Every structure is written in C-alpha cells, then in structure tokens.
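Figure 2 data, in text form.
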Amino acid sequence: MSTFVIMKALQHHGQRDTAQILLLRGAKYLPDKNGVTPLDLCVQGGYGETCEVLIQYHPRLFQTIIQMTQNEDLRENMLRQVLEHLSQQSESQYLKILTSLAEVATTNGHKLLSISSNYDAQMKSLLRIVRIFCHVFRIGPSSPSNGIDMGYNGNKTPRSQVFKPLELLWHSLDEWLVLIATELMKNKKDSTDITSILLKQKGQDQDGTSIPPFEPPGPGSYENLSTGTGESKPDALGGKQEASADCQDVISMTANRLSAVIQAFYMCCSCQMPPGMTSPRFIEFVCKHDEVLKCFVNRNPKIIFDHFHFLLECPELMSRFMHIIKAQPFKDRCEWFYEHLHSGQPDSDMVHRPVNENDILLVHRDSIFRSSCEVVSKANCAKLKQGIAVRFHGEEGMGQGVVREWFDILSNEIVNPDYALFTQSADGTTFQPNSNSYVNPDHLNYFRFAGQILGLALNHRQLVNIYFTRSFYKHILGIPVNYQDVASIDPEYAKNLQWILDNDISDLGLELTFSVETDVFGAMEEVPLKPGGGSILVTQNNKAEYVQLVTELRMTRAIQPQINAFLQGFHMFIPPSLIQLFDEYELELLLSGMPEIDVSDWLKNTEYTSGYEREDPVIQWFWEVVEDITPEERVLLLQFVTGSSRVPHGGFANIMGGSGLQNFTIAAVPYTPNLLPTSSTCINMLKLPEYPSKEILKDRLLVALHCGSYGYTMA
C-alpha cells in the first residue's frame, strides 16, 4: 500500500485511528517526493497520539524524534507537545525519553565547548534540548508536586538518574572554569599555553579531522598539547567573523560558550526545585567560580542579557553582580527588562485574535477612578499583561488612543486630593503617600489599584503624567531610604538631622532620646524608635543610628501599609527582581518619560557663587558641554543637582529648593586631579571644580552623572 494515503491522513489533523488502520494493513513508511516522512508531519503538527502509533509499528522512530530536538526548523512547542504525550504513557517511557534527551544534550554541550564548532548553532541547539528536557521532566506521569530536589540534593531515585548523562558535561564545565581561574592568576605573558591548546584544536579541525570535545589538561600536560599551532583563520563564533585565535585570549574565545553551558546547568538544577527556590548546588557553583563569572561579565556585559538569567530569579546571587549590572547602559537594561518581562507571553507567531467583548474594560467618565478600580480588580491579570482594551460608557471609540487617554486621566486622579492617597512634597511637583490616607475608608484598596495602574503602564510602555518623591521610588525598588530623603517632605527637619551628623553633640545638652512625637491617627503620640527608646539617650556614638531610625519612621514606618498595598498591585504586573535593574532616578524616567530641557532657559536662570561668574572659562565650557551631551545625560545632570528630572511649569525660574524658590546654582571648588563634581540637592547647587580644560570637565562630569547618587550631598 502506498505511503501517500498515510500522508493524506496525517495532513488532516494527524488522524490517529486512520493511520493505525493503514499500518495494520501493511502501509509502508516512506517519505514523499519532497523527502517529508509521516513522522515529520506528525511532529510538525504536534500530533502526539499519531507519533505513538508510528513508534509502535516502527520502534526506530523513537530515536528519530529525539534527534529532531536538534532541528531548529521544527517549532519547539510542537516537539514539546509530542514528547509530553509520549512521556505520559508509562514511567519507563518517561525515563527513556529523559535519558535520551540528556544524552543528546551532553553531546551538543561538548560540541559547544569545542572552539572549532559554530557557536550560534550549537548554543541554540543545546538550550533548546535542555528546555524540552526540563519541560518533560516537570510534567511526567504522577510528577511529584512536593517540589523535592530529585537529583542534586543526594536523592538516588530512578528519576534523578536521568540527569546522570549530563554529569559529564557539568564536569567539563567545572574543569574549564577552574583552568581559566588558574590562568587569570598567572601573568599575562604566561597565558600563551592555553591559547596554544585552543589553536591546536582549531588547526586539527581545519585539516578535516573530527575532534573530540576538549578536555582541560591536568597539571604538567601542557607541553604535549601546546605545540604545532600552524596558521589560524578567522572562525565563526556567535554568528560573526571573529579575529584569528592568536589575537584572542582564552576568555574571549570561551566566555560565551561556557556561559551558555552555565545557563543549561542552571535550567537543569532549577527544574528539580520548587518554584521560587534556587538549587543549593547551583548557588555553590556560582560561589566557587565567582571571579571567573565576573570576569566574563566585565569583558562582555551582554553575557548577562544572553545567558545569566539566573540573576533575575535568584536574589541571593543578584547582589554579587548588581554593581556590574547597574554599570550597563540604561538603554541596554531597558531592552533586557522588556525582553524578560514579556518572555512568558504567547508565542509571537500566534495569530492575534479579535478583542473578546468580555475583556474590554468598560469605565464611566464621571467616576473614572472608582469604576476603573472596580473593573481592573475583576479583570484577568494574565490577559491585562497581554493587552488592554478600554471603552468609555456610552462612547464608541476604542484603540490605543483611548488607552492613552485612560492612563492620562488616571495619572491625575491617583493624586487627586479628594482621595487623600498622596500629598505634595515640599518642592510642589512630586508626590508622597499620605500617612493620613486612612480618612478614606477604601484607601488601601485604592493604593493597590494605583500600583496596578503604574505596573500596567510600565508593562505596556505607557507613560504616566505623575512624579513621585525619590523616597517613594526607592520603596518601589526595595532600596533603603536615608536622611537626605526627608528633605522632600520636611526640608527644615532634614537640615536638623544633617546638623546632628555634622556636629559634636556631646556637650550640647540636647537631651534627645530614641523616641519622637508623631501623628498617629490624628493625635500626637510619643513613638519609640526601638524597644525602650524613650529611656535611651542620643549620644555622639549612636547619633547616626538615631538619624537613620528617625528617617525610617517618617519615610517608611508611617506609611508602611500604604506602601505594601501599592506594591501588591504593582508586583502583579512587574516582578520585583526585574525592576531591581534600575535605580530610583531611572525608574522615574521609565514611568514618566524623558522630559525636554530648554538649555537656553536653564542658562538664563542659573546663578554663580564662590568665585564663579558667567564669563569665566570654566562656566563657558560647562554650558558648551551641556549643549554637547545627549538629552538623557542632560536629564541625569538635572537629577544630579536638583533630585528631579522635572522642570516645573513656567521653566527653570520656578525650580523649588528646600526653603522655596531656588535657582540652579554653580559654585566654584578648588581643582585637584580626578576630583568629581558634587551637588547639594536641597539648594539646587552644583559644586563644580575649576577644571583646567573643557575635555577634563566633560570627562569628570559624565563620570559623576553615571555614578548616580554617590555624588549627592546635603546643603
């Protein structure tokens, strides 16, 4: 019987019963004239049941399916669907599939570690196979729901044994990293040994000889491996022509490859752990190879974005790399943020269906805040992440224009005094949660809604016309506040705290204790800053602790329920680990956009002090640099000096300081080599050293701006 009939049956939704009848009647398993087999059609369509029938009659097709995981032309979700069905048939079948996938992954991983292989193709193949492996492992028949680590915490169960083939790959990975760590400790001139090994490996491949995966040599074996390099030609790594090996050091040639294997290792460790938990084995691995991994990242920061996904999911590891992450360009981190934020969305090649009428947010203009709060709280969170459709009651209009208008109106309503959620800060342009918001019985529900709106806006790249105090952005990011943040709500109190820190209070008789009088539900009460605080005197030795505790009381404890409610809504759409990629200044730009700055208005409303005048060369250079730098850097400069990216309505003439209107001011500071500019944000003052040239001024200024808040001081 011709295979044509089988092919036609499979083209009609992989008809399992028809295929089984045809095979019973002796239909032959042959490819068509284009070389497409019945199994190809089944896998392309995700027809797991029909694949099961084909394997029953032709057992050799099992390995064919396993090998198909390396074919990048086949859709990964279809392969998953087929293997998921096959793995559900029995425990033995499940274990056989996983063991086979582990073996294929190990082979691909060793090929990836071979410098002569094509990096891009091997990297994609390895990670694809490992993703499928982890998916099948999680959904196996009667898969454990208790989340016990089944392989890497010492449990010798049948299921843990499916990871055994991968141990060869992890062992090679470990040896590579140990070898590189050893090389890093040597003088640069001594690093030629390892490069020679790699050159030899590449030279063998160019002669057409098949080479085994590179095994890092043991002590004393370099002499036998580092001879006879021959001529080296550029090799395709990462899809691009790289320089010849003799111009590359070992890290440049191996970092991307090893990082991809590290990603595969993390995925295999993670699939055995409960959600939200990090494998102890992987944490131990990162700690062991900490210096090498940081070296990889420093040399090529894009590795973070490409392979070190574990940083986003492991708070205990994130802190080790945070200084490197924060040093990456803002735009790169924005791209990484949105890439991972939307990574769980449906496949991009899926057809977008028309908006379901039930998914439209129907709101009333005359009660937009309350009606929006009600419909958003009832809406499906996953669907809101994918897209928003808004319609005003009694109106026909829909689309992005309506969504944009909805966000604009809600931006204003969130800070509407009628709801008592936020109060204006001392500068009159930013807002802070209202510690007395309890006067509104629904205040916590509304704070949660405010968090949802800002999270949704950020998720969908919609800007909001609202600016918060620096301390509130810190709360969103989980960054501790400090005494300088008090200036936004009480500039005089902030100056008092600064005075305490700057002066010796030993003999002043202040008689301060670790308790303060504060508003508690409308009545003034004495509140201890720590247990027994009312009887603990503030001294020269403990005054820093006192200032920090006072700050936390006024800026955090007084509004903790409001903060918690807001974050509950915000985190429904924005994971805490992702938002940590930014600091409080960048978060403001993400939420509210990049303002346009009129440099001529800025110059016209600037004052000079401590020896500077408008005609001085340093001042002339400064304004030339302001004209030369990018719009983003101008915003950073404005933030650096004033604490805000906003220019108030009416321009620079209306900039507020700690005690009212306060022009942007530039003060002279004696120059010493490498000295950076600093600022006093309470009085909008830039303390600019008397640099000897425009080039040095620009360099030092940009360093200060990109160092963020480290350059800030109080007046």
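Caption note: The radius of gyration is 31 Å.
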